[in-house]
């Protein structure tokens, strides 16, 4: 597989899945990231038809947090995730992007084992359905939704839980060991989410079009490719900057810049 570009609908203004897919296709992306709620609201059958007609691959389905800190949260978390796995399998999504859920009163090592045990039945069902569970890192400001902030910690969680991961560059680009962590993460990675950070922004979400900020994406994207990753690069630009510029204009620039850092992309094969 050659690296390909998808656009996450979380970037887009509120609209139907049909309108979102039409815009993503018009921008020239090969794939789209959707939310499970969006697919359910549209219906699985109609969503599948929309994606087929636009020629878009559902690169990922956003699930959000998996609760595990208490037995009650675990039971509810499994029920929700199993439903998402079923929907993802029916619509043909290649991965499910999720956060681990918060750890409550648990110490980190305890939370690591508790999460692995809690997600195990869902991971088995996902493997049977051909859907990768891709755990992603977050900012520590989302401690209620995640135990994974550093990419190296995410790798440890994914290995113990026997699941995959997604690299959200915005959340981990400043890790002190990011170069080594990218190499360790690449074999487990099923999605790389791309956006930028402009120095001085303090309020989340404050993501910017790739190339507009200070994240060294021109080095990081090639480094991920050198580590052997050949999957999806998903644009997830959330916040007021994209809206202020205009979603279509900003995403058009984002697609072009992202492809300029991917020597194996369709842009460089033409």
From TrEMBL:
Boundaries of every Xylose isomerase-like TIM barrel domain copy: 22-251
GO MF term (any one): isomerase activity
A Pfam family reported for this protein in Swiss-Prot or TrEMBL: AP_endonuc_2
Alphabetical UniProt keywords: Isomerase
InterPro entries with a match to the protein in the record: IolE/XylAMocC-like (IPR050312), Xyl_isomerase-like_sf (IPR036237), Xyl_isomerase-like_TIM-brl (IPR013022)
Residues passing through the membrane, by range: none
PANTHER family: HYDROXYPYRUVATE ISOMERASE (PTHR12110), XYLOSE ISOMERASE (PTHR12110:SF52)
UniProt name for this protein: Sugar phosphate isomerase/epimerase family protein
Originating organism: Sphingobium tyrosinilyticum
